[in-house]
Write a structure and sequence with these properties.
The protein is an alpha+beta fold. It has one domain. 44% of the residues lie in helices and 22% in strands. A four-stranded mixed beta sheet has the order 1-6-7-4, with helices on one face. A three-stranded antiparallel beta sheet has the order 3-2-5, with no helix packed on it.
Amino acid sequence: MRNAQAVQTIFIYIVSAAIFLTILLFGYQAINSLLSSTEDIVLAELEQSITKEVERIRIVNKRSVPVTFRIPEGYDEFCIVDSTGYTSGSLQADKPQLYRAWKTGTENVFFTPKQPVAMRIEHVEIPTGYFCINAENPIELRIEGTGRTAKISPEVA
């Protein structure tokens, strides 16, 4: 009789361990999914914030405003490419991966390493065609309205 109870107890422990590991695995996957979704949301909010500032400032000719944006952790570099007719200049030679992504026409804002969500800001004029800055929080940019577009450059301290 004791032998049957021992086998039954071991079986219960094995089933309990399997259930525990299954719950642990699904919990891990859920947390990873949530973290990934959170990064996508933060990037979408950043794109919306930059777009809002560009739209607000671009219509006022000669108005120049320093703006600060917070970016998600884990990125080394923030780059933005002119959206008003830039013809690639040195971008292809300097940043070939960015050039290929930019050439598709769906994005002009990039992070290194590559962000999971395509970002595009319209009506952006970059005097040098593009620029990249260290992605240290917060990033500081200068946006100047031209009446039609917004000139964006890194804010120099």
